[in-house]
Predict the 3D structure of the following.
Amino acid sequence: MGNEGSRSETTGDPLAAAAAAAAAAAVENDLRVGWRRAGSGDGTIGARDGHCAVTATGGKVFVFGGVVENSALGPSESNDLFLFCPETESWNVVEATGDIPPPRSSAAMAAVGCKLFLFGGLSQGTGWMNSVFMFDTERNTWKELNVSGTCPSPRDKMTATAVGCRIYVFGGFGPVSASEEGNDSDGEEDAEEDSEEDATDAGDLEDAQKAAKFGWFDDLFVFDTVTMSWSHPMQLNKSGPTRRAAHTTCAVSDKLVIFGGRDPIARRNDLHVFNIESRKWVTDLPLTGIPPAPRSFHAACVVGHRIVIFGGRGIDNEHFNDIHVLDTETWQWMKPAVDGEPPTPRGLSTASVVGDQVLIFGGSSDFASDTMQCLTYFAETYILKVDDLLREKPVTAVGGVGSDSRVQQITGEGDVLRTPSDQSAAS
């Protein structure tokens, strides 16, 4: 028998009724995944969160930056670069030259061929950034790019997703310009709280950013890696996500899929699909199954036609270590059965695909409300098998969707999607 939610009879008990409704929405499936911790090398890379992780040509997985646990100095931002070795299942330092990016957290990075493109993030010394750096994985050299066009404002906790030679940057959190000040009036208290938390990470920010208002973004920018130029294409309908940060964006074919994150009101578990060719948000997506609980700072990647969601931070600042799978051919949410010893609950980890494996690396947990920071950082790498996540097609769904608001639709062509990362806690 496949995996499914348990069924129960209700007797007027609201909790029993809620459990029965959840069970009715469950999708039977035969997914079963086995967790395995990678062999060695945890000490080399160091415990961290808010880093970036991408897979470049040749199946090379790189990790850059983030906040690193340091027993002597406390958590500090990093600009080091690591490469995963599948043979030894360890991380090796990349000895890079050129225009080394300043240390930062919650930046976004995407790979196009053998080049890595790094955008934005939060720096302790200078605050939020919107510069672009390129790393050549064949020459091990960094270069700060001179870009043209309309670029995103300085921010962190956005996503960067490569489709062909273009990189799509969505959302994030940072200083809000005068023309955007009205955007977050419905979440002013949350924005103040979030800016205080980021300011704790950023230390002495530049005067301009100290005086700025802070908020979330819902803009979509495109960086062309051939012309090294930014554009801000008009979205041809207004059915997209709310302003948010610490979400995930996955791409397959000509569509972007955005899940979760935090907006000015709360953490979310809604799903939105953007058609790159038509420049429209698709509406009324007929999702089935039980979606993940609302969360931000989760990790995501794409295996075949399925999107894998891991972990994250919930509404009450609790952390998760669950796995959810979205089939983008049937638009069904599934929750696999789990074998082995999974990672402990965490947010701000990353998920990357290399060969026939999914790597979950790093992250943090134990959020302290007094300091607005997590107290525990992780350096372990955990591995899942891609084949386990693609096994069998889901059984026909029983019941309907269980998402919190604004569920969106896609055309019937069966097109599919791929991933990114985030940090700190404006989300």
